[in-house]
Amino acid sequence: MDTQNLLAAAQSGLLNTAVRPEVVMQQGRGMYLFDTEGKQYLDFIGGWAVNCLGHCPPALVKTIEIQARTLINASPAFYNKPMIEFSELLLSHCSFDRVFFTSTGAEANEGAIKLARKYGQLKKNGATEIITTWNSFHGRTLTTMSATGKKHWQELFGPKTSGFIKTTFNDMGSVEQAVSDKTCAIMIEPIQGEGGVNIADHQFIRDIRQLCNEQHILLIFDEIQTGMGRTGTLFCYEQYGVEPDIMTLGKGIGGGYPLAAVLAKEQFDLFEPGDQGGTYTGQPLAMAVGKVVLEELVGRDLVANSHQMGVLIMERLRANADQLRIERVRGKGLLIAFDLRDMDGPALVSRCLEQGLIINAPGPKTIRLMPPLIVTEKDVDQFLEILTRCLNN
Ligand SMILES: Cc1ncc(COP(=O)(O)O)c(C=O)c1O
User: Fold this and answer.
1) Does the beta carbon of 226 sit less than 6 angstroms from any atom of ligand 1?
2) What's the confidence (pLDDT) of residue 106?
3) Measured from the CB, is residue 193 less than 6 Å from ligand 1?
4) pTM
């Protein structure tokens, strides 16, 4: 099928859930995607903050090949070797003691929400309410949509799950006001990714941790976007000098393979058999992938690269801010955003795509960058060259 026929089939066959440009991606290699016409694109969204090792990394391809020949799925009713090996490795790199694996971030957050409510039921007189923040994003299941702080989602698909109290990000007074004897948890992204890369203040996070300690409320960090080296440390919580009680991971944990996780401290190992599950939990192929992704991130020092390249990108953007007519360059590691002074975000995204660069506009005037963690200085030069051309034309 040629590209035009492929596009026609997509437009007539797929449910209308997203506005997509008229290109069909066919291949990936390192920092690049290639479409069916053979055009190459420098990928600065990395599969939506997912492909941390780049596209089709050899180590991942090899692991998938070997594991696919050995065991793809044994059923959630059994332990399997990759599940045990990966959980051990993951837990050795963070401050948590227990893990449950899922396929998507939304499912991981569902697991965290259930665990928090179980805690409320067992330890806090049946408390069920969870405090979240405006502008947050926690997923697209009905419950995680309810937790999410997008104003225009409030009325969608009702009735949704009740019990989520929205507060203002970086405003401790707003959080304090929302706490009651019904509160079982506070759930927060240390950096709101989909919300436009809004970074939590250190004091805000420390105050939330203290409030949670005093009131025996669980602190849940949604690190689905910020985890796995994205923000310059393996997990973003490390930069705040606090430890959450529960953390969720997704995106980069599978390097492009659907994988996510809920992690908890030992004292919150409160599920009983039957409370939580899923056909694909701990599926051997996903577990083998997770293990090799983490080994590569650590073994190749890609977390340090995330920090260094992030600093470089932000320095270059700031140094050229007037010429590019951009402002509020912000971020940590390779989760970066800036605002456009006059141009429209989606228009810039289209122009860059035409010129062979993929970037994202999470808001009408905001551009977000989340390149693979393998990005080099040469890639940064090319990114800036295309961006400058697109902003000045
Ligand atoms: C912070 C955060 N939480 C949850 C999710 C949902 O993850 P998924 O799309 O894998 O369900 C996302 C996805 O963008 C996210 O950025």
Assistant:
1) no
2) 98
3) yes
4) 0.98
